[in-house]
Design goal:
Pfam families: MADF_DNA_bdg. This protein is 50% helix and 0% strand. With 187 residues, it is mostly helical. The radius of gyration is 28 Å and the shape is elongated.
Length: 187
């Protein structure tokens, strides 16, 4: 998409159909309707063009605007001057309201009336509480190796081990005496 006019037209069409971007919309999970809308947008943009292309383009535009916001925040933090703004970033401001409720009504607040509980014995109760952190369970080496193998197979990569590395992994995963005697127990 080369022209600015085409980008602005695509953004306007995308904004008109709230079910494509507003997650609170009742038709947000109606995928058949969304496919029909994307087909209509594709026909509006260019006759007989694939809807997947325009869907990809809007995601690309959204990504660029989000990256611009992140870079802008980083520039503010580091004291640098921000980079020039994308010409269409203001047109995508409607995405800031993608979680808003339909009709613009805020959620109803329930007032909470707390009764005084009376005097407490501790002056600083938070001082007596200690931070409890849940310890991570160690993942067995067999599970790690299985997940690595699964990942390798899914990505069809050329993951190659040296002969020594393969033998060490084979000994560790076999559960033989090497595994029982050579491992160190860490606290």
């Amino acid at each position: 998409m080369k022209t600015a006019k085409a980008k602005l037209k695509l953004i306007a069409l995308y904004e008109d159909h709230k079910c494509l971007w507003n997650q609170r919309n009742k038709d947000f999970f109606n995928f058949e309707l969304k496919d029909r809308i994307w087909d209509a947008i594709a026909d509006e943009m260019k006759a007989d063009s694939p809807s997947g292309f325009w869907k990809h383009m809007i995601h690309k535009l959204r990504y660029k605007v989000e990256m611009e916001r992140i870079q802008e925040q980083g520039a503010k933090f580091s004291g640098e001057s921000p980079q020039p703004k994308l010409f269409y970033s203001d047109n995508l401001l409607f995405l800031n309201h993608m979680f808003d409720r339909e009709g613009g009504k805020p959620p109803r607040e329930i007032p909470m009336h707390l009764k005084p509980s009376g005097p407490t014995l501790e002056k600083n109760p938070s001082r007596n509480l200690r931070h409890v952190q849940e310890k991570r369970k160690r993942t067995p080496i067999r599970e790690k190796m299985a997940s690595l193998e699964k990942l390798r197979n899914l990505q069809n990569s050329k993951f190659v081990l040296s002969r020594d590395a393969f033998q060490k992994i084979q000994k560790i995963t076999s559960g033989g005496p090497y595994y029982l005697t050579k491992t160190k127990i860490r606290p």
